[in-house]
TrEMBL record, chain A:
It comes from Paractinoplanes aksuensis. Keywords: Membrane, Transmembrane, Transmembrane helix. The chain crosses the membrane at residues 42-64. It comes from the Bacteria. This is Uncharacterized protein.
Automatic annotation (TrEMBL), chain B:
This is SigE family RNA polymerase sigma factor. Residues 101-153 form the RNA polymerase sigma factor 70 region 4 type domain. It comes from Paractinoplanes aksuensis. Residues 17-76 form the RNA polymerase sigma-70 region domain. Belongs to the sigma-70 factor family. ECF subfamily. The lineage of its organism: Bacteria, Bacillati, Actinomycetota, Actinomycetes, Micromonosporales.
Length: 314, 166
């Protein structure tokens, strides 16, 4: 039984609901947004032929004060000097599923401690999105799930089932070799037997991890640890290049090819922010201690960063 | 009610109901549109599976609710608490409108979880057991959240001498 306040509240809510925005354009707006998400999902899948968009970071870029003088910050004594070498060798993902109708070619990414390949389903009635992950240690899961032992690729693995809607999630994982664990994650579009069969069908491959930027130079001897649509980083993030959604620079120390930029040196490293106007984004290059880089090398590196249209600011 | 077969049918037939729900939940037109568009866009690709559920609309509403609570959590610092209320009015029809506006603003000042409980209870007419399931909490939590919210509203109504609607 509602009291007076509760009745007034209910009436108020039902009355106010009539002021809700109209749904006249809802369907088209949802389609537009859905399409945008799809493009983002597929952005990294675009072939390496995607045109490199040079975004105001020409071959010769000089960070200049508004007065015209070169940025004055002097490099600190180099603990581990970064040397730049030409180009960037793309890492590869070492496995592939056999091509199948209703499945796209895989997209490979690199995240700290793991290499990941995403196989997107286009026929969602018969196929399911499938992700294969390679790690050097046994994966640790936090989601509640049931587990069952299975034989996969001649090894003892485990099949986890996460009871979720609209589809149960399956994660099959097993030790593929010394210091190498594989996971295959998909959903109950497939039977459990099919999930194991998929894992059994993995073959050796060399799927290139497509970076978001084309680099004219890369840091010599540093191991890439992250390559996603927004980020390329090396040595646990000590050297990183990140495309971020636009934010105002608190001040500028100069410009890079017409774009405002800010170079800051702190005790723990150096950071160069470039407000890339035609991407509505900020390219952030950070080199953390114990690595050290001179201003001129940092600028030379920045000059060789070309944002590709498969990138996506974070 | 039978479920529309296709995603487009669903959006066209149930879109405004979802917008009304999101609007009452959030108290903001733009946020309501954003909530509904976001949830539907994310479900678009997997609609075949969602449509197979016993009650697809309930699933979508739950997603809107989760999205609202998640967004509001990130925006918690911007929440207003029992903001300025409209002045009282004398004549009958206007009094009702003012009373409605006052209720609306009192609701807007509540913490997100309390607001969600009141919307589910008094707008969606759901029993506490279903509200608890939607919010992943116990029925006792639902009751205490509702009780606190209503008590806070009563306190403000008394303190400010707000009008009834007749």
């Amino acid at each position: 039984m509602m009291d007076d306040l509760e009745e007034r509240l209910a009436r108020s809510m039902h009355g106010a609901a009539l002021d809700a925005p109209p749904d006249a354009n809802l369907l088209s707006q949802v389609h537009r947004r859905s399409g945008r998400y799809r493009r983002r999902r597929l952005a990294v899948q675009l072939s390496g032929l995607a045109a490199a968009l040079v975004v105001g970071l020409p071959t010769v870029a000089v960070l200049v004060h508004r007065s015209g003088s070169v940025v004055p910050a002097a490099p600190r004594p180099a603990a581990t000097p970064v040397q730049l070498v030409p180009g960037f060798p793309n890492p590869v993902f070492p496995y592939a599923l056999p091509p199948a109708d209703g499945m796209r070619a895989p997209v490979a990414t690199l995240e700290p401690g793991k290499r990941i390949a995403f196989f997107e389903a286009t026929d969602l009635r018969r196929q399911a999105d499938t992700t294969v992950t390679v790690t050097s240690t046994e994966p640790v899961f936090t989601t509640a799930a049931t587990e069952a032992p299975v034989q996969v690729r001649g090894r003892s693995g485990r099949l986890r089932t996460v009871d979720a809607e609209p589809a149960k999630q399956y994660v099959l994982y097993w030790p593929e070799g010394p210091d190498r664990w594989l996971q295959l994650a998909t959903d109950d579009t497939y039977t459990r037997e099919k999930v194991v069969a998929l894992a059994d069908s993995l073959t050796s491959a060399a799927i290139p991890v497509l970076p978001p930027f084309e680099l004219d130079h890369s840091p010599a001897g540093l191991t890439p640890d992250t390559i996603t649509a927004s980020t390329m980083s090396f040595d646990d993030g000590d050297f990183s290049v990140v495309l971020r959604r636009a934010y105002p620079l608190p001040s500028t120390t100069g410009q890079v090819a017409g774009d405002d930029a800010r170079l800051t040196r702190e005790a723990d490293g150096v950071r160069l922010d470039i407000a890339v106007s035609n991407w509505d984004a900020v390219l952030q290059i950070t080199v953390r201690s114990p690595l050290a880089i001179t201003d001129s090398d940092l600028l030379r590196f920045a000059a060789g960063v070309h944002i590709l249209d498969r990138s996506n600011p974070r | 009610m039978s479920e529309p077969d296709s995603f487009d049918d669903f959006v066209q037939t149930r879109g405004w109901a979802l917008l009304r729900f999101a609007y009452v939940l959030s108290g903001d037109s733009h946020l309501a549109e954003d909530l509904v568009q976001e949830v539907l866009a994310k479900m678009h690709r997997r609609w075949g599976r969602v449509a197979e559920l016993h009650n697809a609309e309930a699933y979508v509403r739950k997603a809107i609710l989760r999205q609202f609570l998640s967004w509001r959590r990130r925006r918690a610092s911007t929440e207003t608490v029992l903001a300025e209320l409209p002045e009282q009015a004398g004549d009958e029809p206007q009094t009702r409108i003012v009373a409605r506006d006052q209720m609306w603003q009192l609701l807007a000042g509540l913490p997100r979880a309390q607001r969600a409980v009141l919307v589910l209870r008094f707008y969606c007419d759901l029993p506490d057991a279903e509200i608890a399931a939607l919010l992943d909490c116990g029925e006792s939590t639902v009751r205490s959240q509702a009780s606190r919210a209503l008590a806070k509203m009563r306190t403000v109504i008394v303190e400010k001498g707000l009008v009834g609607d007749g």
